[in-house]
Amino acid sequence: MKLCTFRHPHTGAEHVGCVVDEQVFPTQFQSMLTLLETCQNDFSRIELQPSAFDLSSVELLACVPRPKSLRDFYAFETHVRQARQKRGLDVPPEWYEFPAFYFSNHHAITAPFAPVKKPRHSHMLDYELEMACVIGKDGMDISREAAEDYIAGYCIMNDWSIRDEQMREVKIGLGPAKAKDFATTLGAFLVTKDELADRKAGKGFDLEMEVFVNGKRYGGGNFKTIYYSFAEMIERASRDVMLYAGDVIGSGTVGTGCLLELDNSRFPYLEIGDVVEMRIERLGMIRNQVV
């Protein structure tokens, strides 16, 4: 099943739909949070209205426009190693002991095709190509063996970052904070986990991930190279605390999925007018212009 949040062509109101063969069938839910809270991963409770809209005729919003929380992990070893090597640092041994995350701003979600405003004081605006899972059932102290039962589905995620601010913050030992709180793009489609079952590989999925700037491929990789699984992330995140339907968990950046890892004489940081496009197999595409 492929779920989306769209603006209803007749009323202009937000609505949740199910995408089937390039058509959007409205459901009985006006918000994705209400759907997730009500269904608790029992999607048989979703009712489709008989009349549909052409997918190309509706405005697609982020699949979860207002998550309950947003945790972003740091789960691809290649990204961690290359980003740190560029600063003359090794991967800390603690990274191999548990999956680490930080809280991002769940009130700053950007739609998949909306403009993203460049922060005024940044000269090092970056993108980060990630996959996210959306929690579909409430739970605490969830084991990695049981974690898949709590996942509703997956979407593309761009964790926009301002690196000059981040470099200042990490010296204090707290953060990233202000470097990450201005925008996160979530894809239009929440693809339920059954749609990816045939692509399971290692701790992830055999899904190609790519990022383009102004039409030129800048980087990417395959999600199957992830070091920590979403199940391990959920186990860590839910320890001694509730996860709720509507929480979003980011994977962290795939190797070469951000400018920080690259040669910035060839791949410069983003400027106003640049268009960033990301694609993940089966999850779709997002495209945002910097303004």
From TrEMBL:
Keyword Hydrolase: yes
Matching Gene3D superfamilies: Fumarylacetoacetase-like, C-terminal domain
GO MF annotation, one: hydrolase activity
Name of a matching Pfam family: FAA_hydrolase
Organism domain of life: Bacteria
Record flagged with keyword Metal-binding: no
Domain (Fumarylacetoacetase-like C-terminal): residue spans on this chain: 71-291
Keywords: Hydrolase
Name listed for the protein in its UniProt record: Fumarylacetoacetate hydrolase family protein
Species this protein is from: Candidatus Thermochlorobacter aerophilus
High-level lineage: Bacteria, Pseudomonadati, Chlorobiota, Chlorobiia, Chlorobiales
